[in-house]
């Protein structure tokens, strides 16, 4: 960085302006602020190197008539990819479109209208912000987000921006239904009962996040979201038709093409641990958007609400045998929270810490 450049000051100024990257983009800037520029090691491999056609696609229309086949497909996808796309999941297309439309409408409001929701309180309520790890990360990313806690302590309805209030609440209901159906299949894939994860409250802590990746004038100098794994049980992702998501598979980055009507599901670190490494959480990232239209993605993070005993967790005892002993130690709720909120987004750091 050149002499006289005060990064901390510049970040603070951007944050306090409450303008977000959408605001910067709408101003028609041609150069991104320096604190968004990522190091060469991040920028050198942004292009997908893979000939792979994308993540597995699983059709849920036969969930009852051909359940063993779908269990096997989901188990294989969760083992080898950590990511899959589901179709015929039972959510009407109109709901998908309305949800995307409402989040787009929120982000397209004038800065003043959004600014009253701009805050940095991650663990509760409603938060609109640019980069929830802005002050913890080494370089900022080109996205803004609206985050709403849905459960166990739901945000007050009147705190959810009016322009998307109905759709956010409705999406929580639909995404939970899909996640619970998929969790049933994932549990069966481990040889457990279909209701096991629900009983363990694996769908009872939920956060809705509506990301906007606006047009970026220098997409080769930054990223939309840096490479990371998700910390929780599973994530359900709904996106518009603008590409940008990449998933790490083996040594390559694979482009995920949006499938009209599809929902993307990925495994989080918590489920990798609970499944004793049978299922894998996988690195993914989003490229900065070079399209004039914003990329919109709606992410629902699912995690458990009820910890064991005095607040600890680890691999499920019923999956352990003398031939397959635990490969992770138990960890506490404090360790989990500290690991996520104590630094910028990263990959599998909790998993690395508790590996036996």
UniProtKB/TrEMBL annotation:
GO molecular function: dioxygenase activity; L-ascorbic acid binding; metal ion binding; oxidoreductase activity, acting on paired donors, with incorporation or reduction of molecular oxygen
Xref: SUPFAM superfamilies: Clavaminate synthase-like
Alphabetized InterPro entries for the sequence: DIOX_N, IPNS-like_FE2OG_OXY, IPNS-like_sf, Oxoglu/Fe-dep_dioxygenase_dom
UniProt keywords, alphabetically: Iron, Metal-binding, Oxidoreductase, Vitamin C
Fe2OG dioxygenase domain boundaries: 201-304
PANTHER family according to UniProt: 1-AMINOCYCLOPROPANE-1-CARBOXYLATE OXIDASE HOMOLOG 4-LIKE, OXIDOREDUCTASE, 2OG-FE II OXYGENASE FAMILY PROTEIN
Protein name, as recorded: 1-aminocyclopropane-1-carboxylate oxidase
Species this protein is from: Actinidia chinensis var. chinensis
Family to which the UniProt record says this protein belongs: Belongs to the iron/ascorbate-dependent oxidoreductase family.
One Pfam family of this chain: 2OG-FeII_Oxy
